[in-house]
Amino acid sequence: MTVIAMTREMGTRGKDIATGVAETLGLEVVHHELVEQHVAERMDLSENAVHRFLEGEASLWERWKIDSRRLSQFTSQEILERAIKGNVIIRGWGAAQLLRSIPHLICVRVCAPMRYRTAEMMGRLGVDDEFVARREIERSDAAHARVIEARFNRDWRNPTGYDMVINTGFVSISFGIHMLCEYAQSIDAEDVGEMAASLKDKLLEERVRTIAETARDIATVGGDLEVSVSDGAVTLSGMVENTSGLSALTQKIEDLDGVKSVTMEIGTLPASFAAYGP
Questions:
Q1: Could you tell me where the beta strands, DSSP code E, fall in the chain?
Q2: What are the distances in angstroms from CA 257 to CA 17, 72, 249?
Q3: Helix or strand or coil: residue 228?
Q4: How far from chain centre, in Å, is Cα 89?
Q5: For a disulfide at 8, which of 37, 39, 110, 266, Cβ 3.0-4.6 Å?
Q6: Domain co-membership, 162 together with 269
Q7: Is there a domain that residue 104 lies in?
Q8: What pLDDT is attached to residue 268?
Q9: pTM beyond 0.70, yes or no
Q10: In what order do the strands lie in the sheet with 106-111?
């Protein structure tokens, strides 16, 4: 079982590396159209609207209309469901940021110097104007940075957030494919088991967090409830104004597939404090 999450900059030929690795190792490439389609169906939105929002290109009306938090949750769950199936390369959509904590799952960034990217995009766009190609690259980079910052509070260009960085301005595409394949094939069966278990816990965590955040009969204090999952054991912690809705919330969580137990480490706001308000 191999799972690779790839972040690629426009004009770096990261798509060629993903295709080459997939053909060599027999992997499925999960690209943005597949993610957008399923997320759009879940949220009853058009695929174009989802695409523009996730690319940071949504209009003011679309940003007002779309529940960004819910969209982020569904996107994360879609990515995790794809990863759990195994033998995939997931390109883009913050997959590398979402999955970076999963042991033995490979997070890779494909980058290149601006001069290389500009020349590549000039060829793709069929233009002779370097400024036009560079402007398109910078627009794409800025939009991607906004989305990743909003969803994960991270800088997507920081190399320490990846297991491997491939610079196609200095490394050939064929050698980049070779390096990534070698890395993937070095992961043994025991490591794969740990990765699979961690992915299942991460998906449960996302599903529980969605349920907890939409529990309208629970008023939290100081932010959302914290969710952690270990081998199917779910723990929620935080402060609430009262515990009247916790029993129903616990039942909803226990009904999720894969949940083995639910522990509530919940405190209540003292009445004397509540009387003074925030």
A1: 3-8, 28-30, 88-91, 106-111, 164-167, 220-230, 233-240, 261-268
A2: 36, 21, 15
A3: strand
A4: 13
A5: 110
A6: no
A7: yes
A8: 78
A9: yes
A10: 28-30, 88-91, 3-8, 106-111, 164-167
Count of CB atoms situated within 10 Å of the CB of 221: 14
H or E segment and range at residue 275: none
- pLDDT tens digit sequence for 89-145: 998 778 898 999 999 999 999 999 999 999 999 998 888 899 999 998 998 888 888
Give the Cα separation of 138 and 134 in Å (integer): 6
What span, in angstroms and rounded, lies between the C-alpha atoms of 135 and 129? Answer: 10
pLDDT at 110: 95
* The predicted structure's pLDDT at residue 244: 77
Output the six-digit token pair for 122.
């000039």
Tell the residue number behind the tokens 């009853």, with chain if given: 44
Determine contact, residues 27/89, Cβ cutoff 8 Å.
Answer: yes
**CA angle in degrees (0–180, nearest 5) for 35-40-43:** 130
Assigned token pair, 261: 């137990």
Residue with tokens 């997320």: 39
Query: Residue 259 and residue 261: Cα distance in Å, rounded?
Result: 6
Instruction: Give a yes or no: residue 100 inside a domain.
Output: yes
Q: Are 199 and 105 in contact (CB under 8 A)?
A: yes
* Structural domain harbouring 133: 3-192
- The low-confidence residues of the chain, meaning pLDDT below 50, are 64, 274-276
What pLDDT is stored for residue 25 in this prediction? 96
The secondary structure of residue 159, as a DSSP letter, is: G
Strands 88-91 and 28-30 come out as: parallel
- Kind and range of the H or E run holding 144: helix 130-152
Task: Confirm if 146 and 16 have CB atoms less than 8 A apart.
Answer: no
Last residue in a domain, options 159, 192, 225 = 192
